[in-house]
Design a protein that fits this description.
By secondary structure, the chain is an alpha+beta fold. It has a single domain, classed as CBS-domain (Roll). Helix content is about 35%, strand content about 20%. It contains four helices and six strands. The strands form two sheets. The protein has a four-stranded mixed β-sheet with strand order 1-6-5-4. The longest helix is centred in the last third of the chain and has 19 residues, at about 120-140. The two termini are about 25 Å apart. This is CBS domain-containing protein.
Length: about 140
Amino acid sequence: MNIAFFLVAKSDVIYLSPKNTMRQALEKMQHHGYTAVPLIDHKGKYVGTITEGDLLWKLKNTQGLTFENTDKVLLEDVPQRIKNIAVRINAHMEDLLTLASAQNFVPVIDDNNIFIGIIRRREIIEYFTKNYISTMKDIN
């Protein structure tokens, strides 16, 4: 099945720019209850995913960095420990299963590498669960 059916469009996705600060990321993540947010550059291209863990490790490993001065650190200066892989819009659900095991969501890009949205892990798991249950009913 084509993934477009499951796409959460960019207009409905919370995302940040690498030029945003750690403080902005922390506040946006807290406000929306997210643990990871896609990073989109000024050209609209997906450049990675920033996670709570990335922010915590930066805070821990940067001498003198406190919550009060996180507004001085740009997200482009925060190392991303895990590289979330994006897929093209013409991918199939089967292409996402392995990615979903390690990512909260799978970023989706178009043929010009422009970020167009995400597929959430929940929808991927639900899709495969329904197919599995349907197959089991057919076998029995």
